[in-house]
User: Fold this.
Amino acid sequence: MGIRKTIDKNQLIFQTKHIDEKIYVKEQKGFYQKIRRSLSVFLMLAFIGIPFIHYQGEQAVLFDVAAQHLKVFNYYFYPQDLLIFTFIFIIAAFALFYVSSKYGRIWCGFICPQTVWTLLFLWVEHRIEGNRQQRIKLDKQKLSGEKVLKKVAKHISWQAISVLTGVVFMSYFVPATDIYTELFTLNVSPLISAWVMFFALCTYVNASWIREKMCQHMCPYARFQSVMFNETTKVVTYDEMRGEQRGPRKLNQPKPDHLGDCVDCNLCVVVCPVGIDIRDGLQYDCISCGLCIDACDETMKKFSYAKGLIGYKGEAASRSKSKADYGYIALILISVTFLLLWITNRSQFEVSVLKDRNALYRINNVGGVENSYQIKILNKTNKPTEFELDNIGLDNFTIDMSKIVMAHAQTSSTFTVTLIAPENYQQKFKQFEFVLKDKTGEHKPVKINSTFHYL
Assistant:
């Protein structure tokens, strides 16, 4: 194919730049940049807008810390429902692995919040301080009023974005209408203010100071990405056979015979958010953002050369899905199936029975054998439910309480129940089931095992 071999898992190239060397990223337009910006706008609007979606008069998506549940429209998930998060993370992990095996680190380059917010901060920096050359010149010049004004304006803008990010993030835990009202009336509680400032600080540090260092040195995904690559993985690749020998030339000059298509303009380096040279081969820092592709295609167009000197390419053409692809797809489908089955069969009520710890049994005033129990019902629905209490396995036993149990909405209710054995009962212990039947028949009966003790 004439493509430089770049996917040897044991030969990824590591950069030797100083960790404190500042990278000045040139703003670039093009096909992949347009895709990224469209995705970024969509994701940011979704991030800001989701807390404002209301369902049945309440916020549709809310992590209610006080009530210890996650609300998603008409569904409420409690700590007992932790399995749903397990399934979601498993599905997300397999989907990420599948995409990575097909297209490398496009998650990092197009959707990762670190990249989205970093490029947003770079966009603000470009608007305030100017283009790449102007920013370099500004940093080198001596302290002046203009320099201070631009630097202060930039950091104030960054901090404003960071605070807004913190507020939006907290609106997933505190009702959005409440937190925004408190914010505009300057009546935010100290606890909420502290959390907003914490998330704002994290955003500000990550997107303004750390930037590419997060991708290069902190993100674990950058370290194990090569495990998921294979010969068909399409990664950002420089066509060495076509591009070398690289060298500068005049715009309207015919291409010299001894030179390749690469005009050595270095634009692929100056537009890279992590500051690497893709012409050196695949590097673990590369986030597959495609900015170098846009820059190179633009240069190729100016010189009337064919585009694609840098592009998403693999070592081998993939005409059919690999075994790994089928494996990932199968695992995703299996996980989704189990998730749907779990949601379908998930009980809307959590019931637990605790036997009286003070005594296994009691003899009442008329000589009958009694066992006491505490029944705890967590109603996960948004409306109160009446249950009728019964048992299976204890014939002729008496329930000493009202058989009607009221479980209030989104509340954990506890009831004391006494079972009285029939006359002349002598069995040492007997297994049975408490049965809670919804009087409306809307929900399935809830059964829970217990034991009746004597002697």
User: Anything to note?
Assistant: The first strand starts at residue 54 and ends at 55. The domain at 349-453 is CATH 2.60.40.10 (Immunoglobulin-like). DSSP finds 14 helices and 16 strands in the chain. Residues 1-19 have pLDDT under 50 and may be disordered.
